[in-house]
Amino acid sequence: MSTTEDTDRLALESGLTVRPWAEGDDLALLEVWGDPENAMHHQDRALLRPSSNDPWSRCIVAEDQGVPVAAATILRSSLHPDRLSFYAEVAPDHRRRGVAAEMLAILEAEASNCSATGLKARCAKRSAAQCFLKDNGFTKIQTTRRVIVQPGALRLPDLEGTGLDLQEIATGSVELSRLVADYYNAVHDWDRAEMTVGKAQQLLLGDATGATGAVALRDVSEGGDGAVLAFAVSYTPARTEDPADVLVGWNPELDAAEAERHVRSLLALLAARHPVELEVDDSMAPLKTVTDELIASGDAEIDFEAFIYAR
User: Fold this and answer.
1) pLDDT at 224 over 80
2) Which of 151, 168, 147, 155 is nearest to 265 (CA)?
3) pLDDT classification of 211: cutoffs 50, 70, 90
4) What is the mean pLDDT of the segment spanning 32-51?
5) Does the structure show a pLDDT above 70 at 2?
6) Pair 63, 21: CB distance under 8 Å
7) Which residues are registered as beta bridge partners of 166?
8) Dist. CA 187–CA 8, nearest whole Å
9) Could you give phi then psi for residue 25, rounded to 5 degrees?
10) Under a CB-based contact definition with an 8 Å cutoff, are residues 283 and 164 in contact?
11) What is the DSSP annotation of 48-75?
12) How confident is the model at residue 248 (pLDDT cuts 50, 70, 90)?
């Protein structure tokens, strides 16, 4: 790699030149990349933006004779301090020329001043990105899926006389915010998280997140103290024929069997008459057990599946 006449540009061995991300690059790259393949792809492309020190991120673009054809970024999450997130995309007719690897090397050099000690990236199954990550020393640490549960997939629980009750709970409540923070940290022990009550409100429960309501399965039995056993947050503003987007979780103080039982009951109530869509990681064992059963029986389907790799 050598420096060109423009000090902001670098010449790659692949013949392309690299420069910092600039305004208008998103539209220029869309012309050569085409539309995103799914929601995950759309989210990953949204990571490409001007470099910043707060939050810390670096983003670069590769050009072929002045035409943007590739981009890559690394950024630090406010939630997961130990690893930087990496994303790169190269136009199909410029792949297999080492472009992404050269861009990764440039960005890693920039990361030397950042306290994070590793990298992570996600990719679709059997994709070019998965091959790239494997070839560049990344190993798989997690699988995540978007699962659609069909109406009536689970038998409805009879809550009467069980000491359990399904209740609405305010998305702005401290009780829910604290529970969501504890749950998030517990199911992300594979990528240490620093979720707090404030961050839970900002990132998962506040008005800006699109959260429209929440319900809680409570222990209302004598001596149960009204504790929340499982919860669900909806991000769908109005009921339609499309699956409702929900976050489902449980009290992390429960053992696995209890958590699975209460998650099963809550999911049955949520999907009694309408489909719901939720994200399920391998680390969410109680929820994964239930959704795996439904997928096997044909009562749920995988919308898309992604792997998370780390180095």
Assistant:
1) no
2) 155
3) very high
4) 90
5) no
6) no
7) 217
8) 41
9) -65, -35
10) no
11) ----EETTEEEEEEEEETTEEEEEEEEE
12) very high
Write down the pTM of the prediction.
0.89
Rounded to whole angstroms, the Cα distance separating 187 from 189 reads 6
The predicted pLDDT at position 1 comes to: 41
Length of the chain in terms of residues written: 311
Segments of 251-289 assigned E as strands:
276-281
**Tokens 């440039």 appear where?**
106
Find all residues with CB under 8 Å of 125, minimum gap 6, and list them: 305, 306, 307
Residues 6+ apart with CB under 8 A from 93: none
**Beta strands 244-250 and 276-281, pairing class:** parallel
Angle in degrees, CA 211, 54, 115, rounded to 5: 110
* pLDDT band, residue 162 (cuts 50/70/90): confident
Contacts of residue 5, defined as CB under 8 A and 6 or more positions apart, other chains included, come to none
Please give the pLDDT value at position 242: 86
User: Inter-axis angle of helices 285-297 and 256-270, to 10 degrees?
Assistant: 50
Structure tokens at 24: 């208008």
In this structure, how many other beta carbons lie within 10 angstroms of the beta carbon of residue 139?
Answer: 9
d(C-alpha 215, C-alpha 249), whole Å: 11
